[in-house]
Amino acid sequence: MPIAHWQDNYNTGNTRIDDQHQQLFDIVNSLHDAVEIGEDFQILQKILDHLASHTIAHFQTEESLMLTTNYPEYDRHKQIHDHLTAKVVNLIQKFRNCDATVTTDITQFLTEWLTHHIKGEDQKMIRFFQNQEYGQYEALPILSPTY
Ligand SMILES: [Fe+2]
Ligand SMILES: [Fe+2]
């Protein structure tokens, strides 16, 4: 049973970001299913590695967009990303060393983190990008209104 359910209001309007978010949901669901059916170490490790690489690539996409547009909250947003990346990397290391196992508490945490982050920080960031684009159009000569 999937744990992360995509909803329309998670869409930001940026297709690339939305696709990456949905892929993250898919990976969390794969991990959750694997935990629930008691998949072996190798399978869990493979999904965890996939989760880490996709998370890092996704954060890099957002961070480079924020830098290109001089997003004023870049530092804070990046810190939040770095915090989650550190948690995932730490989990993988512990899992590899057999110091930790993957549980549904972890997939629950990842689902809640993603949902909260997408609805808050990411939506705010995309709105800024959209306003920036709008700002460029504003620089065009203003035509007299026709009534
Ligand atoms: Fe995101
Ligand atoms: Fe983000």
CATH architecture: Up-down Bundle
Largest sheet properties: none
The SSE string, one letter per element, is: HHHH
Share of helix, binned: over 70%
Low-confidence spans: pLDDT under 50, at least 5 residues?
Answer: none
Mean pLDDT value: 92
The kinds of small molecule bound in this structure are:
fe (ii) ion
Q: Strand pairing plus helix content: what structural class?
A: mainly alpha
Radius of gyration: 19 Å
Q: Domain count, please report it.
A: 1
CATH topology: Four Helix Bundle (Hemerythrin (Met), subunit A)
Beta-strand content? under 5%
The tally of beta strands, per DSSP, is: 0
3D shape:
globular
CATH domain class name? Mainly Alpha
